[in-house]
Amino acid sequence: MDKDILVQIDLHCKWERSPPIYRLYVNDELFSERNYIWQAGEYVRENLALNAPPGEYKIRIETSSDFNFKLRNLRCTHGNARVIDNETFRI
Q1: What are the backbone angles phi and psi of residue 34, rounded to the nearest 5°?
Q2: Which of 4, 33, 8 is CA-nearest to residue 19?
Q3: b or e along 31-64 (b: 16 or more beta carbons within 10 Å of the residue's beta carbon)?
Q4: How far apart are CA 20 and CA 27, in angstroms?
Q5: How far is Cα 59 from Cα 86, in angstroms, rounded to an integer?
Q6: What's the pLDDT tens digit per position in 44-66?
Q7: Domain coordinates of the chain in residue numbers?
Q8: What per-residue confidence (pLDDT) applies to 35?
Q9: Over 90: is that where the pLDDT of 87 sits?
Q10: Of 13, 20, 79, which is closest to residue 47 (Cα–Cα)?
Q11: Which CATH fold topology does 3-90 show?
């Protein structure tokens, strides 16, 4: 049976000229695509709402540039999911 959960993750990127574009996936499903317009030292909180069956899920970032994105502080704020590391959780 599918479960409703909400996980949050903080995302950071250091950039100088034009803001990098990134895509945020859970497994192979696209959850967001946007320009990272925030400055150094600022983290963006991404909210990922899922209605999914029990299993393991991995968050990944895709970008067409050489920017280094950092993920931290993965947490479940609604429902029942166990965080495995900063990119993986289990429902």
Answers
A1: -160, 170
A2: 33
A3: eeeeebeeeeeeebebebebebeeeebebebeee
A4: 22
A5: 9
A6: 999 999 999 999 999 999 987 77
A7: 3-90
A8: 86
A9: yes
A10: 79
A11: Immunoglobulin-like (2.60.40)
